[in-house]
Polysaccharide ABC transporter, ATP-binding protein (Methanothrix harundinacea), 430 residues
Amino acid sequence: MASDRAVEVEGVSKTFRIPHEKRATVFETLAGALRKNEYEVFNVLEDVTFSVTEGECVGIIGDNGSGKSTLLKVIANILRPTKGRVAVRGRMTPFLELGVGFQPDLTVRENVGMYATIMGLSNGMIRDRIEDVISFAGLGRFEDAKLKNLSSGMQVRLAFSTAIQTDPDVLLVDEVLAVGDMEFQQKCFEVFKRYRREGVTILFVSHDLGSVRRFCDKALLLSHGRQVAFGETGDIIDRYVYGGEGRGGAGEDGAEEGLEEKSKVGSEESEGPQTKPRKVLLECSQDSGPRRWGNHKIAIKDVAFFNKFGSVSSRFNSFDPMKVRIYYEVNEAVSDPVFGIGLYTAEGLHLYGTNTALKDLKFDRIERDGYIDLEIDKIPMLAGKFLLSPAIQNRDYSITYDWIDKYYSFEVISTGRDDGLFEVPCKWFV
Ligand SMILES: Nc1ncnc2c1ncn2[C@@H]1O[C@H](COP(=O)(O)OP(=O)(O)OP(=O)(O)O)[C@@H](O)[C@H]1O
């Protein structure tokens, strides 16, 4: 292993074999002895290769079940790889299944002593640090309580507080920061920052992309056990959120169009549609399809959301740019139409509305099919699913040409640590 490498993972695959046939009784065992047991094979990791330099922090991201925890367990030597090789230089502390080994009938204090022993701390160190551990976990008042009387969150806090007393060179962390309240999470961040300053190498599995973006120099993206990408954190998070095709493939237009114009009308005949519009939904009842009304002289054909790479996407990083494109078709030429959108939470709470009239944009007469773009410089919502209603009306809103209510949706992935629905630009001063 190269001298500056702390962790090397080379061609690692992991397969689980789940037996199909259950042999619970003696008879079943005897009767089945001559038959070959059948197994279902799960390839949970396939050919994963990457290396981590000393002092680097690497985030491991991917959908549920993509193999992140299994990979950490293989690196921690809890699981043996089916193929491939892992090398770790220095003392490794895994924060994986925190609290394994806790005894429910022992007190908090007794458990800390026992857990610290499992984590490899000497008796002297445990004696010196036990108060710190309990106070870091915020369990001073509970030190003589039996563990079984604590909430599961309290137990994880206690396990985390004990585990950080070790002096690791390489730290493996699985979602620890997802536990506990904001105050405890803040304390965890402080500990990780200290470890980072001290040059500890960290591998960090998390669904919290904001933490990964802030803490990690690099990231590894897994999908169905395969390594999709490994590299600079921002690039890998983009790859995860926007997908492989979300970065400039066929039929994409963002590069040429740029993002400078705030709102623009295009013509499908001249430029062609940039995404395949869904079927026109002119006839739809209340109980099937969207709520929709209007005389459809101009009808909305589709709405597409474009990401910063100019590709159609349904997921966005918070604070990234977004372009909303409304495709329309003209059944009868109209003068001076107003295009608008309404933005809602998934529960239907109205967040924002705007239209071309409010932004002083005027069209004389529209005779041909086309599209109009609304460009958002920075998505202010922090996380969640959002709904959009596109609408076309006349200037005094007395005629609705088309309105499709809360039908189109997109998801915003959190990339920050603030809490709530949207960002309020602000600063603290003392
Ligand atoms: N011991 C096991 N036996 C069989 N299958 C397993 C075992 N451990 C994990 N798996 C399967 O391996 C796959 C990957 O699991 P893993 O926990 O590594 O994914 P993950 O990316 O960490 O998921 P999550 O984000 O939900 O924690 C899952 O389909 C899981 O069911």
Summary: Residues 5-242 form a domain with the Rossmann fold fold (CATH 3.40.50.300). The longest strand covers residues 5-19.
